[in-house]
Amino acid sequence: MSRGDHIYVRRRRRYSHHGIDCGDGTVIHYVGAWGTVRRVERTSLDSFAQGSEVLVRQYRRRLPVEEILDNAESRLNSQGYHLVRNNCEHFATWASTGSAASSQVRGWAVAAPGAAASVGVAEAAGAPLVLLGSLGMGLYALTKPLRRHRRRQRQALIHSGAEAVTG
Predict the structure, then answer these.
(1) 3-state secondary structure string, the chain?
(2) Its pTM surpasses 0.70
(3) pLDDT of residue 48
(4) CATH topology (fold) of 6-101
């Protein structure tokens, strides 16, 4: 890891948390518990990682390091977190490239097309549809580890069956 890197950690196999490495043992990222107002702060790398392995997001093209850090620092103490439109991954991607994006949200939207559509409709129709869309995306995210586990089990059975035949 180095100064200006977009870093992330996996949280309980359900989602990943993103930030910008300041190169001095600190990270700029969204902080705040679920159900509270979240804001962009600079914390220690240990506080960001919470015991998880810190990984670096690679980009083909990214902004110069000083611009990345200027972008991240410009958002210090700002609020406005939104799970679908402005989350920690949006923030770190924007700071790194100048364009906000979230592969997690994209993955949820592809898996649950109705959820993505409900977000747009919800702005006109109200909060109940946002809740339904969020629940759909959340259920998909929660069941992903189960699907992965089942796939590994099937592969193990296939592999053990092949060994029995050849053994």
Answers:
(1) CCCCCEEEEEECCCEEEEEEECCCCEEEEEECCCCCCCEEEEEEHHHHHCCCCCEECCCCCCCCHHHHHHHHHHCCCCCCCECCCECHHHHHHHHHHCCCCCHHHHHHHHHCHHHHHHHHHHHHHCHHHHHHHHHHHHHHHHHHHHHHHHHHHHHHHHHHHHHHHHC
(2) no
(3) 94
(4) endopeptidase fold (from Nostoc punctiforme) (3.90.1720)
